[in-house]
Model the fold of this input.
Amino acid sequence: NYRTKEKIDAVENAFRKSFKDIEISFNNFKVPSHVSDQPMSDEETKLGAQNRARGAIEADKTANYGVGLEGGCKWEIEENGSKKSLICFAWMCIIQRLPDSKLQESFSRTATFTLPNSVASLVEQGMELGKADDKVFNRVDSKQDTGSVGILTHNIITRSQYYEQALTLALIPFMNSELFADKL
Done:
């Protein structure tokens, strides 16, 4: 798990804005996703986020929440079955530890965006998205920095902002527990 400043800032901002009246402390852990380095489906990406959140909450038995973020891609397919375009997104999983030690999960996905063909072709050949971005955009370790969303939007949408919205959406059931009692 790459504990980038952008991901840490997104988690901290989402929690602080969602729970303004509560003092919150944060720990971050490097935990495996147990999925491929470049997830290529919604299902695999969501599982990676869930595995990271589970690993985080297991790493700290006193934590009230565990959070996992996982970026992924998938091909949009034409009606004839051919690949149309490669889209990029990320899944968020937040796990809450209840007083009885049961765990409750909530998920959200970011917005999607289309990757340029120059990047998509490298990913199709097996290259991880961050490395493909580095090659195409002549960057070094961009996945630790702006990521694809920052590069392609010229930082109009920062990587932290991109994740923060989805994290806030994943927090909805926990911010409104009385409305979600039957789901949590």
Notes: The first helix runs from residue 5 to 18. The chain has seven helices and four strands. The CA atoms of residues 93 and 107 lie 5 Å apart.
